[in-house]
Amino acid sequence: MLKKKEKYVIAVVGATGAVGNEMIKTLEQRKFPVESLRLFASERSEGKKLEYKDTEIAVEKLDENSFKGIDIALFSAGAERSKIWAPIAAKSGCVVVDNSSQWRMDPEIPLVVPEVNPDDLKWHKGIIANPNCSTIQMVVVLKPIHDAVKIKRVVVTTFQAVSGTGQKAIDELLQQTTDLLNFRDVKCNVYPHQIAFNVLPHIDKFLENGYTKEEMKMVNETKKIMGDR
Ligand SMILES: NC(=O)c1ccc[n+]([C@@H]2O[C@H](COP(=O)([O-])OP(=O)(O)OC[C@H]3O[C@@H](n4cnc5c(N)ncnc54)[C@H](OP(=O)(O)O)[C@@H]3O)[C@@H](O)[C@H]2O)c1
Fold first, then answer.
1. What is the pLDDT of residues 40-74, one digit of tens each?
2. Is the CB of 12 under 6 A from ligand 1?
3. CA–CA dist 179, 196 (Å, integer)
4. CA of 139 to the centre of ligand 1 (A)
5. What is the pLDDT of residue 132?
């Protein structure tokens, strides 16, 4: 359990990524009471300097002792990394807030949107999951309606930004846009089709029920957050 303090030692895991970068900016913009900030990413980024409040902080690679002395670890380095490192971090005594899909549907781990189900924070055991980005926005709107009249069915269309696929996708969009505007052919690496000046009506793999994984995340995560099983 997190002890109330005036300032907290914070870690961002996945600090060099699209989401990690936003986490660092948000800590600064919201004036979060940060005593010190530790930044972690893969070996590829070890030593790279990132800015926080006009200071440069060197990125570290993770090891078994990384989380000693850390109060809160914000994880955004993909599900595989969360699977390995979030339990290690929690065991070291810090509270993990995990942005990946790894723990969202684990019955032992609360899935929390603060505006919707803050009480679920009470039963965490060191790891707290946050939902998929589309789910987060949707449940904030649905919650008061659900409380008032009980929602039976929701029909949703999402239009999602390339940033949801990560930094490499943002770079691909920029490169393709530059190429097209210079009359050059585009190369597709991250997406199977051209993404610049285009919309791809498909996110993640299809499941046996005909929906995609991304679509089922919205269904299952919403039910868990609303306590509607
Ligand atoms: N909840 C939401 O709304 C939401 C939205 C978007 C994304 N996400 C999730 O957030 C996570 C990150 O997404 P992103 O868009 O920021 O991806 P990204 O831009 O590709 O960044 C991935 C980050 O993970 C780090 N990483 C990769 N392998 C690692 C390793 N072995 N050890 C430590 N760090 C490692 C990368 O470090 P390097 O730079 O060194 O490779 C980078 O900092 C994903 O799980 C994604 O599904 C959630």
1. 999 999 999 999 999 999 999 999 999 999 999 99
2. no
3. 10
4. 24
5. 95
**pLDDT tens string 112-165:** 999 999 999 999 999 999 999 999 999 999 999 999 999 999 999 999 999 989
Residue whose CA is closest, atom 30 of ligand 1?
42
pLDDT at 80: 97
Most informative mutation of 50, 63, 99, 103 for ligand 1 (most atoms within 8 A of CB): 99
Residue 181 to residue 95: CA distance in whole angstroms = 47
CATH of 8-99, picked from 3.40.50.300, 1.10.300.10, 3.30.300.30, 3.40.50.720, is: 3.40.50.720
Residue closest via CA to ligand 1's atom 39 equals 16
Closest residue by CA, ligand 1 atom 32 = 42
What one-character DSSP code corresponds to residue 149?
A: H
pLDDT band at 228 (very low <50, low <70, confident <90, very high): confident
Q: How far is the CA of 187 from the centre of ligand 1 (A)?
A: 23
Cβ atoms < 10 Å from Cβ of 65: 9
CA–centroid distance, residue 39 to ligand 1 (Å): 13
Question: How many C-beta atoms surround the C-beta of residue 141 within 10 A?
Answer: 11
CA 160 to chain centre: 15
Q: What share of the chain is helix, strand, coil (3-state, %, to 5)?
A: 35, 15, 45
Residue boundaries of the structural domains of the chain: 8-99
pLDDT at res. 229 = 67
Q: Give the distance from CA 5 to its chain's centroid.
A: 25
